[in-house]
Specification:
This protein has 700 residues and is of the alpha/beta class. It is 47% helix and 7% strand. Helix 9 crosses helix 19 and helix 15 packs across helix 16. 44% of the residues are buried. Belongs to the glycosyltransferase 2 family. Plant cellulose synthase-like F subfamily.
Length: 700
């Protein structure tokens, strides 16, 4: 059962050196909190995109804008250096640290169209560019330190909108540098054009809903329409940088019309989802951050149906698909995009851009003023934004809901795993941060299930493939497994703690057959997932372990939060996970510093149910051996011994699954945490024992 993978022709893509051969692209880089998402990481993401196309972006913090302004002074040197020597990746932080880790040699991609590939010239240019980058980095760090001292509480939620053009568009004609000894590096015969860079900060006012990231993306969608109106849009989080500069071209190729047309024509592809790859993950991947089973098995499998699910970052969109229109094969003959003011708002320039469906470049005063009006918090009042147009509101996982709305209209999506990886990012390796991240995903999935975008009911049955509908339904109901799993973790332990010696009745043949079929099915799934995703069995097992940790903690909390929202209408709030520069800790720093977050213990209420389940099962194993006697030793037969040993086997199975959680609680050097685990075990044992005594008293 080999995997069928759709890919792009690398030789054909590399031959497209003229940007005019491909349509224009806008890149949206989003960030929210400069404390959790360092401005230096955002600046590096911007610079990694820069050798290709322009980008609008957003943020309400002044320090982020100042950091981007500082970064805007560096691209003239950085972009020319990248084009001259063909370096990869285009992220300065990752590039320079990769050079240190590789024995002092920078990563160079052979590109015959540029000069200066001689090793001495590269070493000299690299040294000069790095010196300029380090100076820029120090200035950005100083800006962040100064901003932390003067920031006022609540300022991020009340500010005016800002649209600022930092770098104007240079046009489509190549602009070659000239030999000039006064420059830091020789730019003769190097294309020195810089794409446009626009800073966009939407308006926020207290008392008005801003709809989190979905509202920011919709503001960017409108502002970019009057400034550039590029037909394709790349969505990147601030902690994800471009690792393969050719991947953007390959993504566009998936959406360009092919000859022949037909139902599977590229014109019906709404977005191309790239897999997420991460730096800075601990070698053992204790908390399953890589998640290769989902990206390389589930998403790849959906590519054979109607396409993968949109997962928030590293996604290339067709602009018109975000406007809530039908794909070409579902439109009436000659039907285009109807620019309805009741749907899109009253902006004449924006409505004209919707009708035009062609790119342009405007950075005059009128366009900037119109873009500023389009990012105001009142513009969406009385329109279809957030419901039928743009990113979907009403859930903290706006990505899944937005992708579902496209698929249910009949659009398709595509999955492309580039080599090298198209994008790389960072993830939280601390247990508390990771659980908060999973909580947000799980709560958002349940919000979608209880919304008008429920996959079971919404969508035209002719346009949404039945298996695609089932996949979305599975994506929105999986947190409910926590209710059954917490019972699975606790109930088999109760008889042992109560002193009942486990199960008294032998399992029926039907139960044994069911259990055997279940185990065979799980084994088959494991074999297929490891084969299709290309991971080792150990990595698959870590995914299973963290699934149980998540289900007994974050999933359970998500069910409670969404139940409270459904009952009271109270909106869900979530904690933004901290981002960091994964490459900032070089191999020289050692693993202690590089993975310090992994061993940092931060207690959160999310851990309580999992800690209780772990403690109960450890206590039940201790209770089973109370008095130095194990229950199956006194069994009259081997069959009876097997029956008596089943509860302890369940306990061992649960404890083995929760082992990474126990490691996270213990940290590396914190001796104060081990007594906490012992205390939990004692308290859980006494609580369950007391409950059982009460039940025996009432039934006596």
């Amino acid at each position: 059962m080999d995997v069928f993978v759709t890919t792009a022709d690398p030789d054909g893509i590399a031959a497209l050196d003229d940007d005019a051969l491909l349509p224009a692209m806008d890149v949206f880089v989003t960030t929210a909190d400069p404390d959790k998402e360092p401005p230096l990481a955002t600046a590096n993401t911007v610079l990694s995109i820069y050798p290709r196309r322009g980008l609008p972006r957003r943020q309400g913090a002044e320090v982020t804008r100042n950091a981007v302004v500082e970064a805007a002074r560096f691209p003239a040197l950085w972009v020319s250096f990248c084009r001259k020597h063909g370096v990869e990746p285009r992220n300065p932080e990752a590039y320079f640290n990769a050079g240190e880790g590789g024995g002092g040699k920078a990563k160079v991609v052979a590109r015959g169209s540029y000069r200066g590939m001689a090793w001495p010239e590269l070493v000299r240019d690299r040294r000069r560019v790095r010196r300029e980058y380090e100076e820029m980095r120090l200035r950005i760090d100083a800006l962040q330190a100064a901003d932390a001292r003067r920031r006022r509480c609540g300022a991020a939620d009340d500010h005016a909108g800002v649209v600022q053009v930092l770098i104007d568009s240079a046009g489509s004609a190549p602009q070659l540098g000239v030999a000039d000894g006064s420059k830091l590096i020789d730019l003769a015969s190097v294309d020195v054009r810089l794409p446009a860079l626009v800073y966009v900060c939407r308006e926020k006012r207290r008392g008005r809903a801003h709809h989190r990231k979905a509202g920011a993306m919709n503001a960017l969608l409108r502002a970019s329409a009057v400034l550039s109106n590029a037909p394709f849009i790349l969505n990147l989080d601030c902690d994800h940088y471009v690792n393969n500069s050719q991947a953007l071209r390959a993504g566009i190729c998936f959406m360009i019309e092919r000859r022949g047309g037909g139902a599977e024509d590229a014109g019906d592809v709404a977005f191309v989802q790239f897999p997420q790859r991460f730096d800075g993950v601990d070698p053992g991947d204790r908390y399953a951050n890589h998640n290769r089973v989902f990206f390389d098995c589930t998403e790849l499998g959906l590519d054979g149906l109607q396409g993968p699910i949109y997962v928030g970052t590293g996604c290339l969109f067709r602009r018109v698909a975000l406007y809530g229109v039908d794909p070409p094969r579902w439109r009436s003959p000659g039907g285009g995009v109807a620019a309805d003011p009741a749907k899109f708002g009253e902006s004449a320039q924006f409505l004209a851009s919707v009708r035009a469906e062609q790119s342009h470049s405007r950075d005059d005063g009128d366009a900037i003023a119109e873009a500023s009006a389009l990012v105001s918090c009142a513009y969406e009042d009385g329109t279809a934004w957030g419901r039928d147009v743009g990113w979907v509101y009403g859930t903290v996982t706006e990505d899944v809901a937005t992708g579902f709305c496209m698929h249910r209209r009949g659009w398709r999506s595509a999955y492309y795993a580039a080599a090298p990886d198209a994008f790389r990012g960072t993830v939280p390796i601390n247990l508390a941060d990771r659980l908060h991240q999973v909580l947000r995903w799980a709560a958002g999935s349940l919000e979608i299930f209880f919304s008008r975008n429920n996959a079971l009911l919404a969508g035209d049955r002719r346009r949404l493939h039945p298996l695609q509908r089932a996949a979305y339904l599975n994506t929105t109901v999986y947190p409910f497994t926590s209710l059954f799993l917490i019972a699975y973790c606790l109930f088999p332990a109760i008889p042992l703690i109560a002193g009942g010696g486990g199960w008294n009745a032998a399992p029926t043949p039907t139960y044994v057959a069911f259990l055997a079929a279940l185990m065979v099915t799980l084994a088959a799934v494991a074999v297929l997932e490891t084969r299709w995703s290309g991971i080792a069995l150990g990595e698959w097992w870590r995914n299973e372990q963290f699934w149980m940790v998540s289900a007994t903690s974050a999933y359970l909390a998500a069910v409670a939060q969404v139940a409270l929202k459904v009952a009271t209408g109270k909106e869900i709030s979530f904690k933004l996970t901290s981002k960091h520069l994964a490459s900032s800790a070089t191999p020289v720093a050692g693993k202690d510093r590089q993975y310090a977050e992994l061993y940092t213990v931060r207690w959160t209420a999310l851990m309580a149910p999992t800690a209780a389940a772990l403690a109960v099962n450890v206590a039940s194993m201790a209770a089973a051996g109370g008095g130095g006697r194990w229950w199956w030793w006194d069994a009259p037969s081997a069959a009876a011994a097997a029956v008596a040993a089943l509860p302890v086997a369940f306990n061992v199975w649960v404890v083995v699954h929760l082992y990474p959680f126990a490691l996270g609680l213990m940290g590396r050097r914190s001796k104060a945490v081990r007594p906490i685990l012992f205390l939990f075990a004692v308290v859980a044992y006494l609580a369950v024992r007391f409950l059982c005594l009460l039940l025996q008293f009432h039934t006596a």
